[in-house]
Structures are given as C-alpha cells and as structure tokens.
Write a structure and sequence with these properties.
Four copies of one chain form a homotetramer. By secondary structure, chain A is of the alpha+beta class. Chain A is flat and about 80 Å long. In chain A, a hairpin with a 3-residue loop joins strand 1 and strand 2. In chain A, helix 3 runs parallel beside helix 9 and helix 8 packs across helix 9. Chains in contact: A-B, A-C, A-D, B-C, B-D, C-D. At the C-D interface, helix 4, strand 5, helix 5 and helix 6 of C face helix 4, strand 5, helix 5 and helix 6 of D. Strand 8 of chain A pairs antiparallel with strand 8 of chain C.
Amino acid sequence: MEEILYQAIPVLDHGFVRVVDYLGNDAAIVQAARVSYGAGTKQARGDEGLIRYLMRHRHTTPFEMCEIKLHIKLPIFVARQWIRHRTANVNEYSARYSILDREFYIPSPENLAVQSTANAQGRGEVLPQAEAEQVIDTLRTDSEAAYEHYLQMLAGDGRSGLARELARMNLPANIYTQWYWKIDLHNLLHFIALRGDTHAQFEIRAYALVLADIVSTWLPMAWRAFADYELGGAHLSAAQLKCLRRILNGEKVSQDESGMSAREWREFNTLIGRG
Amino acid sequence: MEEILYQAIPVLDHGFVRVVDYLGNDAAIVQAARVSYGAGTKQARGDEGLIRYLMRHRHTTPFEMCEIKLHIKLPIFVARQWIRHRTANVNEYSARYSILDREFYIPSPENLAVQSTANAQGRGEVLPQAEAEQVIDTLRTDSEAAYEHYLQMLAGDGRSGLARELARMNLPANIYTQWYWKIDLHNLLHFIALRGDTHAQFEIRAYALVLADIVSTWLPMAWRAFADYELGGAHLSAAQLKCLRRILNGEKVSQDESGMSAREWREFNTLIGRG
Amino acid sequence: MEEILYQAIPVLDHGFVRVVDYLGNDAAIVQAARVSYGAGTKQARGDEGLIRYLMRHRHTTPFEMCEIKLHIKLPIFVARQWIRHRTANVNEYSARYSILDREFYIPSPENLAVQSTANAQGRGEVLPQAEAEQVIDTLRTDSEAAYEHYLQMLAGDGRSGLARELARMNLPANIYTQWYWKIDLHNLLHFIALRGDTHAQFEIRAYALVLADIVSTWLPMAWRAFADYELGGAHLSAAQLKCLRRILNGEKVSQDESGMSAREWREFNTLIGRG
Amino acid sequence: MEEILYQAIPVLDHGFVRVVDYLGNDAAIVQAARVSYGAGTKQARGDEGLIRYLMRHRHTTPFEMCEIKLHIKLPIFVARQWIRHRTANVNEYSARYSILDREFYIPSPENLAVQSTANAQGRGEVLPQAEAEQVIDTLRTDSEAAYEHYLQMLAGDGRSGLARELARMNLPANIYTQWYWKIDLHNLLHFIALRGDTHAQFEIRAYALVLADIVSTWLPMAWRAFADYELGGAHLSAAQLKCLRRILNGEKVSQDESGMSAREWREFNTLIGRG
C-alpha cells in the first residue's frame, strides 16, 4: 500500500484516483472483531478465518474500522452518480471560488454504444465507426465552444467579468471536477459492489475497478472474503430456492409452475449454469 | 398546509417546489419532547414555550420527529450544491432511463452580477446591460445547441442512436432536473439556515426561501422559535465576547488590542450596531 | 393501517409497539420510482411488478420514500441492541429528567435457555424447570431490590435526595424504557431482516416480528416482494455457486474439493435441501 | 500524538480512553480546504488563518477529513448517552458472546449530589457525608450481589448454565463495557461541545474533557480555533441582539420590554457580564 500512496492511478482520459491516506488494515478488522466477540474467537480460527466468518454472516461493523482518503478526478456526470453514496466525507473543488480546467471526458470509439433495447438504462452494441466519429466530433466541438464562452463570460468587457458561480452553468456534464473522498471500508465495498457491477455505467465502473484493486492491495484478506461471498456469489429468491430444490430432487420444473416471471426464469437458469 | 399540498410553487424561470406529503406538526414536536423530558415539562410552560426551550438549548431530536416529502424541479448546478446535504432521501429523474426535457435556467438580467472582489465565492454589482444581454444570449444559444446535439446523438442514423447515459454528458449545468426529496425538520432547518443565508448563491437561496415559507405554514411555532434563535441571532467568538464586556464596562477597545483580525473586527462592529 | 393506528400491540411481558404516524404507501414507492426511471416503466408492468423489480435489483431509494413513527416500550438490554441501527430518529424517555417506572422484563420459563455450545452468541435447550424457577426468582428479587434502593436514594433523608441521573445507575438492564422511533422503510426492512432472523436474540426478535406484521398491513406489495426476495431467499458464495453447478451437471462433489469449511458445507447442504 | 498513542488515559474509577489510530492532522484540513477553495486561499492567509476562517464560517467539510479511532472503557449508563451520536463507527464488547468483567462505577463522595431544584436534568449541592456513604454502600452492595447472581446463573447447576445473552439482564447500568469508537473530527468536536458542556452529566463530561485534551495534542490549530469560536463563544437570539444594541446605544432596557422570558433575561445578563 505504501508503494501506491500518492500515486495518481489513471482512469478514463484525464481522470485519476490517488490514495492520500488510510487507517487500519486486515489486522485492525480482526482486532475490532475480537473486542466485540471476545477472546474465544481466537482459538477457533486464524485471522483470515475470522474475516471470512464476519463477511459471511454480515457482521459489518468491524469493516467500518478501516478508513481511506482518496483524491479523485472525474467527469461531473460520474460525480453525480458517485455522490449518491451518502456515508462518506467529501471536499469538492468549488467552481464558485475557482476556475475549472479545460478538461473534458471524450469517450474512445469502442466505448460509444447504442441505447440498449433490452435494458432501459443500458448500452447495447458499439456504434458504427462513422457514427462514433460523428458523436466524438460533436462532444469535442461543443465542449470547446462551451469552455471558450465560459472564459469570455468570466473575462467580461475587460474590467470585471461575470461571477464564477454563474459562468460555470454553461459547462457540460463531461467536464472534469475533483474531490477528496473519505470513506470507511464497509461503505467502500458497498460502492464497489454496486458501481463495479456489469449493470453500472462504464465510466463509473472504470473507477470502481481501480478502487477494487486498491482494496485488494490494502486489505488482501478482506478483499478475498468479499470477492468470494459478495462479488462472486449470488442471491436466490424464495421461489428460486424452492425451484432449485425440486430440480435437485429430480423433478422437472417449467417456468409456468416456477412462480417466476420470464425474466427471473432466464436469470435463474443462467445462474445455475443451464442458461 | 393542506391548502398548499400538491401545488407547484414556482422558483426561478422553470423550477418549482411541491409538497407531496408530510408527517407531524408542532404538536408532534411537543409530544416527542414530553416522552423524553417527562410530564414535568407540562406544567412549566405551554407548547410554544416548550418548543422555544428546545430550540434555545439545541435539543434537536424532537424536531427530527417531523418529516416532509417534496417534489422539486431545479437546475443541475443547484442540485449539485443541494445534494451535499446527506441526511435526506432522494429519488432523482434518471437521464440513463429517460430523455431530459428542453428546459434551461436563463438568469434574468438583474441576477447577473460581476465576480465579487471582496469575496472569492460571491457576486458583486449587477452587470452592465449590454454585457448582461451578451451573457444571456451566450447561455441561451449554447443551451439550445447542446440540446439539439443531444437529440441528434440520441436519434443516431435513424436506426438506433447513442445510449442515453452517454448522450447526456453534452448537456450543460443549467438544464433542469427534478427529484423527490424527503427530509426531517431538523435537517431541513439546517438546510434553510445555510442555503437561505445571504452568502449562499442566489439560485439555491431562491429555493431555500420557498422552503422557509413552507415550514412557517406547516409549523408556525417551530418556525418562530427558529427565526428568533437561529436566523435572527448571531454567534460571538470568545474574543468578541470579551471585547463586548469591556465595552459595556465603559472601556475603549481598539482592533489592535481586541485579538481580532481586521475582518472579524468589522463583522463584530456591524453585529453590535456600530458598523 | 388506520385500524391499528395508536393501538399498543403487546410484546414480551410489559412492552408494546404503537404506530403513531406514517407517510407513504405502496403507491408512493411506485410514484417515486417513476420519477427516477421514467414513464417507460408504466407500460411494462403494473405497480406490484415494478415494486418486485425494484426489490430484486436493490433499487433501494424508492423504499426510502415511506416513513413510520412508532412508540415503543422495551427492556434496556433490547434498546441497547436496537439503537445500533443508526439511520433513524429517536426520542427516549430520559432518566435524568424523570423517574423510571417499576417494570422489569421477567422471561417466561419456556424462554429461558442454556448457553449454546455450538454457537457462542446463542441459546441452546430450554432450562430444566427447577433451574428456570431459580433464575426467575433471582431476576425478580434483584429487580425489586434494585428498584427499592433506587427509590430510597431518590428520596434521600427526606429533604432532598440523590440526583435522578445518578440514582438510575443502580437499575438493571431488564428495566423497561420507552421511545419514539422514526425510520424510513428501507432501513426498517433492514432492521427486520437482521433482528427478525432466527440468530437474533429472542427478545428483540419478538419486536421485529411485530414490526413485520405492521409493514405487511401498511404496504402489502412491498412486504410480499421483501418476503420473496430477501426473507425467504438465500445468498450463495462463489464457492457454493460453483459447487451447485457441478452437482447439477451430474458430478459428485465432496467437502474436500468444495473449497468450503465444514460449517459452510453443512449450511450449503441444508440450503439446497440435502441437509 | 505519537507519545500518547496506545496509552490508556484513565477516566472515572475504572474507565479509560486510548488512541488506537488516527488519520490526518492540521495540514490535512488545510489541504482539503485548498482543494475546495482553490489556490487563491494560499496567498491570503497562513494555515492557522485558513483554519480559523473555516471554523468561523462553519465550512465543516475539511474538518471531516481527519479521523480518529479510540478504545474506550465506560459505564453502561454513559455508553447509552454516548451512542446517541450516530455519525460514528462502533464495535462494542458483546455480552452475548462474552462474560462481562466485575467492574462497576462507584462515584466518589464529592461527585454525589442532590437533585437540582432549578434544573430538572441536573445536580445541585453535594450530598451530606452520611447520606453519601449510604448511597455508596447501596451501589456497591447491589452491584456485588447482581454480579454474584450473574455468575450463578451462568454456572447453572454445574452442567450448563443460562445463556449469557439472558444472564446479563440482571446487571446494573454502572457496570463497565468497552468499545472501539471511530469518528471524524467534525463530529468529534460536536460531541465535545455537547458532552463537555457544564450542563452535561459529570460522568460523560469526564470523558469529553479527555477527548478535548487529545484533540488539542493532535490538532493544535483546529483546537484553538474551536476553543475561540465555539467553546468560549456564545449565541445571541434575535431578541438578545436587539436588546444589546439598545444598551450600547445608551438606552435602559428592562426585562419587560426585552421580549425575553425571565430565564433568558438572566442568561443574557450573565453572558454580557452584568449578571
């Protein structure tokens, strides 16, 4: 962890994640758990066994005993999703006090995709090349123009320009901002689970995957437990569980009698490897 | 309160605040306080006296027993300040799922001001008319262009356009979004104190003042106590308090011996009416 | 819901749960979800389908749009577990201001159990009758004595007794306290999932089951979705999922090659109905 | 700070506060503030000036960038007040898993006071010696008896005793518990302001004063700003401010025309040094 401290790990075209400071490690999780659950836990299992036990049984408070502070540069539309995670401390660069830099996120062609028809919130196939070039050109031209006008409004007639807090409203959602973000491990893992998921938007997911790497370096035991029990695991509904038991019992079950919708039925079959 | 329920109270050029639902009233604050502080509080003072006592001594938990749910339409740069208040529930219109409306905040000329030279985060005098017209023209033209390109990217080549979650990054911070926002009274009053303050940006302040009106209709006793103890009151530092006592004692005190910076000294003199 | 409003629903020997007020219903969840996810959600599925979709995909914010306020009477050792749920508003009866009532939780014999040997935090079999009678007698006698001494210390020598904030320290953890507790639905369901679980202590579980009943009356659709996807469902780890697929593929899998501990292996077999 | 790390600082008769870890220092507050408020803040004032500015204008987010983890041993009735501060992470010693130690808080005679007649929640004069001895004797005897019976119930008839989660309900509120408590600086200062206040109960105040010492060692600049602007300062209501201005203007003001209650009037006169 000391090796990556202060390093700006690049994300997207101009963004980064940088570890500024951290508190705690795998041993700190164990230490806190032993305060709660007593010395008896010592004999029964080693540190990694205890961390796995805590993760499996969702004893989340010991994981809150680790904290990390990051410096992050990210496009505003990503920042708007990110800030929905409320249990964290944030200090964002203020466009009321300061002038934003001329840096915009312009996706690379392979990340430009059509609207998904199957999923209202997602992306489908990659855009044909000509259309991708057109989109990139539009984004680039509009960003440049917006930023030029931002500077012009700030400059005014040469004496005293428009207040920064007003001029910034002309800037698009792909401009970069930056912030300090401090969060405990439990909430960070929840962030990674949600935003590192394949249903999350590609751009925030790029950050979540970097955060995942950081956690795996910082707390290898906690990370392995999380990867096994949460990331790689799956949740079954009551109907799915009932259905699974019938199948294992040798019964044939159709969607009709499963009590699942067509979509749940598909998800279930994919999950159990019959997809 | 029932009279204003569901009414969209206009704010700025296209925004609104609408009360969707609420829980509790002045009597509910009193009721919760009496659970905490016992029946003895009953004899000593009436309901309003008790509410004033709670406010004066910062017994904040009874105020958390009231809750309000609002539907709000607001520009994105206002939403970005707003969301920093973390102790609230939010459901925002998603530009991943849906197409944003063609509505942008364009300030009226009297609300366009130059950057303040005294205050790094504030506005100074109103912009000269010619410059104001220029700014409004720029904002309007850029907003329109950005929205046209947004629609074009969504439409694509006629078959299947760019994913909504990507196209939206071209839209500027003055486009309107909307959300459901649910918050308890204690945190709402804190929001009003910070965002209704004269140092807050005009645009979010416009919303805070509407929220203040709503609270004064909903909970007249709590509002009066808040206006007297918080909004209309003032905080003195240790140095200011010491200095005040010396003045009341007939001494002459200069800034040099006050222990205050020039700025604090000015603020102090304004506060006590010697500004 | 209106029928049970204000009714004290009994729990344990002297406790109760009473609905004081609430905000929102199933329709409010749907309404908030449609602000977020747009009109498109309307055609695809009815209200119950949408609520099930939100629950299945852990879109939790629409569930935060419902709020409930309860008046609860509970033993202090239960209150100490309860208060660990931080995202809620609380007004507790204050033993600094007021004198606590002479009411103690005395378990009935069938709820007195030996320390579990399998589970460090749990109960095993019911205590033999003679021993149960002994325990009940001890609890009753000690409670009575502690309360008598509490009153004596408060009374003092007849002029002015010990401060209430000091005298209360003599009272045991089975004395009853009461509070107003206000919480949003998302956090309430989390409470019910944790505290209504068979691993939770019997006494707090008794409250969680009453809360479950209240939610099922208040929000029948949300409750059914929660019961199907959360309460009745199960979580599989990556190792369990892999193992399940091998079994369904006709392979024989032993614990040795499963990558699971003995305990996880037992839990897995119980889960899939091979216990 | 490194010097006091891991040291158990004694509080009350058996309690302690021990710094386990911390993140950030005065420079970290400045660093976070400069991300938010831009480079311009650098020229204007040095680090201490900036911290004072942040404190005076209640820019609280940079103070959230420091975090501290403490190991604390405290009586349960203190823990019950403490836990009301929700924005913190806690791992408490679990009396479901482990057996509590035989340690009880027994106040020293000079801290035993009569119930205040002026203040429903407070203490008045110290108890006469004979009565104090009586109280101490009662507390000691009842604690010992409760603990003996706790052990007897746990031991049972020699084979298998009562479950720990049940036996603990016989223990009084002056028994000691312990926990890990992790909190950011902003919320810690709020805790110190409330619980270090002269209106707080003596026992929790003893802890708050130790926390104050720790902060003044850890972050001397932030502490001085807090002491000057918050601890040593005072809040004036609108009525008090108006009255003050009239007095400074040479007018005589009586309580009748002040708009204040008798109690507020007394508080006001004490505040301005005319008490």
